[in-house]
Amino acid sequence: MLTISQFSKIAHITTKTLRYYDEIQLLKPAEIDPHNGYRYYRSNQMATVFLIQKLRSYECSLEEIKKILVDPALLKSTLERKQAEISEKMVTYASLQALIDKDLATLSDGGLYMQHQEKIERVDSPQMTVFSIRRILNVQDFSELLTEVFEMIAQEGMIPVGPPLSIYHSPEYTPEHYDMEFAVPVAEANYKTYELAPRPCAKLHYKGNYERLTEVYMQLSQWVEEQQLEIVGPAMELCVTDPNTTSPDENEVTIYLPIE
């Protein structure tokens, strides 16, 4: 048996961490002296420590690790899931790297945030008959809303007649419970559709990586302020291209920001 200090030194893990693992029942000592409360560990428990450390390096949560220690059969599926998550992050970081390269290239031309100004117009938003679903959801689940809308359109036998649009109704950014609407222009006008009326808007057609949309909205807000106007409604994004089949830098979206 090893004292907590001896075990800590050999396994390269702090005694503070070992006590915490004991507290959350991730790794319990082999024995605890009932008289003085000293913790003792067996040498074979180091294998568990090494597994925990390896899984932590793979960005597994302690809760995920706890489940694996209870049921080792979960290890394979967990590693496969983490592998997929890391692959997704690599794609994201590659995209961010490309954006940084472009930002560095534009610094000499007056900064990062001026290239969209000349594309902003004052227009009426398009009038269209749409089928839509509006829901408060986590922004990460937006793709599920898209799928639901298209499934409903197919079930109802409706005919899409234009690119879909997203409408963001929340007055502030609350990603865990965001008020979002996804709409598709359709040929049919019935009780399941409604007429999206035209209204004065600031319009900007953007082509490029969606990672820059925050920058685009900043430019729109700046333009509205310079024109001594006010934003009076939710932003609408008309998705000209399908991001699932279009390379990130080739995506196109038309943004309408209601103004008066």
TrEMBL record:
Record keywords: DNA-binding
| Record-annotated HTH merR-type domain positions | 1-71
Q: InterPro entries annotated for this entry?
A: AraC_E-bd, DNA-bd_dom_put_sf, GyrI-like, MerR-type_HTH_dom, MerR_fam, Reg_factor_effector_dom_sf
Q: Does the keyword DNA-binding apply?
A: yes
Top-level taxon in the UniProt lineage: Bacteria
Please give the Pfam families that the UniProt record associates with this protein.
GyrI-like (PF06445), MerR_1 (PF13411)
State what protein this is by name: MerR family transcriptional regulator
Source organism of this protein record: Candidatus Enterococcus moelleringii
